Amino acid sequence: PAADEARPDVAVGSSGAEEIYACYRAGILDGSLADGSFLPDSGIKRSEVAAIIVRMFDTSERRSVTLG
């Protein structure tokens, strides 16, 4: 499971943090940088949206992410 404050740019209690961490735990998100940063202030690319959608519906595509 993800530890609180495991992503350097997603503070627990911030807007959307609960959902973001849930998606990391489920393997739907794996981060944008090598450290798994979420980059909440940047735009999302079409390829990133496609990867998220695929991982939502095809569990074999989900990522194993260690948080914390």
In short:
The chain is mostly helical.
Keywords:
0% strand; mainly alpha; 68 residues
How would you summarize the topology of this molecule?
Blueprint: H1 17-26, H2 46-57
Could you characterize the architecture of this molecule?
The chain is mainly alpha-helical and 68 residues long. 32% of the residues lie in helices and 0% in strands. The radius of gyration is 11 Å and the shape is globular. The N and C termini lie close together (9 Å). The mean pLDDT is 85.
Tally of helical runs: 2
Order of helices and strands: HH
On the 0 to 100 scale, the average pLDDT is 85
Q: Let me know the largest β-sheet.
A: none
Strand content: under 5%
Taken from the alpha-carbon principal axes, the silhouette is: globular
Q: How far apart are the termini?
A: 9 Å
What structural category do the secondary elements indicate?
Answer: mainly alpha
Low-confidence stretches: none
Rg: 11 Å
How many strand units? 0
